[in-house]
Amino acid sequence: MTDDSRPSARGAAVDVPGLVEQARAGRARAVGRLISLVEDESPLLREVMAGLAPYAGRAHVVGITGAPGVGKSTSTSALVTALRATGKRVGVLAVDPSSPFSGGALLGDRVRMSDHATDPGVFIRSMASRGHLGGLAWSTPQALRVLDAAGFDVVVVETVGVGQSEVEVARTADTTVVLLAPGMGDGIQAAKAGILEIGDVYVVNKADRDGAATVRRDLRNMLSLTERPADSWRPPVLLMSAQLGEGVPEVVAKLDEHHEWAASTGSLQRRRVRRAKDEVEAIAVTALRRRWTGVSDRTELDDLAEQVVAGELDPYAAADRLLGQDV
Amino acid sequence: MTDDSRPSARGAAVDVPGLVEQARAGRARAVGRLISLVEDESPLLREVMAGLAPYAGRAHVVGITGAPGVGKSTSTSALVTALRATGKRVGVLAVDPSSPFSGGALLGDRVRMSDHATDPGVFIRSMASRGHLGGLAWSTPQALRVLDAAGFDVVVVETVGVGQSEVEVARTADTTVVLLAPGMGDGIQAAKAGILEIGDVYVVNKADRDGAATVRRDLRNMLSLTERPADSWRPPVLLMSAQLGEGVPEVVAKLDEHHEWAASTGSLQRRRVRRAKDEVEAIAVTALRRRWTGVSDRTELDDLAEQVVAGELDPYAAADRLLGQDV
Question: Which end of chain B is flanked by fewer CB atoms within 10 Å, N or C?
Answer without folding.
Answer: C
